[in-house]
Amino acid sequence: MTPASPSEVLCPLTCFDNAINLVGMCVQYVLTPSTPLDVDKIENAIARVVDKWRLLAGRLVWLKDQKIWAIRVPIGSLPPNYATYIFTTTQSTKSSGFTPPVLTPSTIEAFGQPPRSAFVSPKAVFTSSDHQKHPLFSFHVTVFPDCTCIGVTFPHGVFDGVGFGHLLRAIDAELNGREWEVPPLETINPVDTLLKDVPIEEGTKFEGYKTVTKMSAWSMATMLASLAFQHVWHGVERGQVYFGRNVVKGIVDPVKKEVMEKSGGKEWVSTADIMSAWIAAYLNEPNSPNTLSMAYIFDARPVLAEASGTSFDSYPHNTVLYSEFTGIPLSSLPTTPLSTLALHFRHALTTSRTLKHVKQRHYDSPDFLAFRRPYGVDTWGFSNQTKGRYDQVDWGGGPIKDLLVNPMPINGDSIPLVNELDGGIIMSMDLRCLIFVAWRGGGKE
Question: DSSP assignment of 393-407, as one string?
């Protein structure tokens, strides 16, 4: 391992961080403050967070021998002109052109998004390689006459959604005078240590996912071709769908009851299982001859905690894995009960959420994963980010009117990113024009 200097420590990452090192993420808020937002107060809170949680002041370095990224974390006094974060603001005299939706308990509504430039700092970078010379996160505020946009951009190759939630909640605590616990600096990565001690069973070498593959020129070309097809043929645009709490209850409760009754109480499905099934059933083309493959992106922290007897709740880096459900004909979706689809997703997740599966991924992990798009197969992802609790940040001045999460520098198609907002569920995703037409203006349940 590359030695750290006396004024720094080296915090190694893992292959799970390698797998998404080309992607950044931006958590984006739209506020309609009843009083002007105190931007200076926010920046001061960020400065205190970075001072206390020194990992955030680090820079990435590639460890050639180990083939992983690590964070060089400065200890003690910082060098002159050393930036620990990026903070930029824009004041606009023009309207944002965005009308925040009316979030009612009984509404399904599809709506667009403010321009990306309102959230992403012009100085922001996204890949792990970029962050060798740039701070680990950037913060941008755009003040419009009608709303305020806040965007926090970070490298997905360092933090997953749960991990980045620690940063946002730390800022929230500093803003609102609460104590918060600083995650420890790990100079020996606990995930890597745990998994290296797990024996490799004969015949368990990771054979590869059906829905994702190693990034290559071909996989990149197929992704871009898929994006182009969706935008040109289906009129796709980046948008959101909001499901009020009564709508979610109306979808979820009957399915949970049906599963419970049919299984005699032996089976159970989560809200996320049911919403995954709903997406599969209602956002695909029933007349298509294609089959469906879905990758449910899940957090492996509970698996690691159970295996080690140690909590991984404060671990900020990636523990992202995939549970797969493949091969269902799209033509069968309209007649397949949501309870059946939800159980398929639950069984696939249960099978994947094991130490054996985590070890298999750790044993033979590609440098970067991209979705497979073989001919005749529609590939979807589903990223449940509610554990990050992004909606619980109080920026001051007024409630959150919109919350969205977008990959950077480009959006992948067919990957709903799910968060909670105002008691309901909000999904950031690429939406076909027909869905916008059907749901814009507040469709009722």
Answer: ---SSS-EEEEEEEE
Q: HSE-up of 171 (CA within 13 Å, CB side)?
A: 23
Rounded Cα gap, residues 16 and 2, in angstroms = 20
| Range with lowest mean pLDDT among 92-101, 212-221, 392-401 | 212-221
Alpha-carbon separation of residue 443 from 243, 404, 418 (angstroms): 10, 20, 19
Contact 442, 102 (CB under 8 A): yes
Between CA 40 and CA 46 the distance in angstroms is 10
- Pairing of β 237-243 and β 107-111: antiparallel
Residue pLDDT, tens place only, 218-274: 666 666 666 666 666 665 667 788 999 999 999 999 999 999 999 999 999 999 999
* Main-chain dihedrals φ then ψ at residue 391, nearest 5 degrees: -75, -10
Task: Tell me if 360 sits within 8 A of 332, measured CB to CB.
Answer: no
Q: Which residues contact 106 (CB under 8 A, 6 or more apart)?
A: 244, 246, 247, 444, 445
Backbone angles phi, psi at 428, to 5 degrees: -95, 125
Residue 10: strand, helix, or coil: strand
Question: pLDDT, tens digit, for every residue of 331-358?
Answer: 888 889 999 999 998 998 898 888 888 8
Return all residues near 397 (Cβ < 8 A) that are at least 6 apart: 31, 33, 34, 35, 36, 37, 38, 148
How large is the greatest C-alpha to C-alpha distance in the chain, in angstroms?
A: 67
83, β-bridge pairs: none
Cross-strand pairs, 142: 90, 149
The pTM score is 0.89
Euclidean distance between CA atoms 2 and 71, whole angstroms: 11
Handedness of CA 442, 424, 379, 220 (dihedral sign): positive
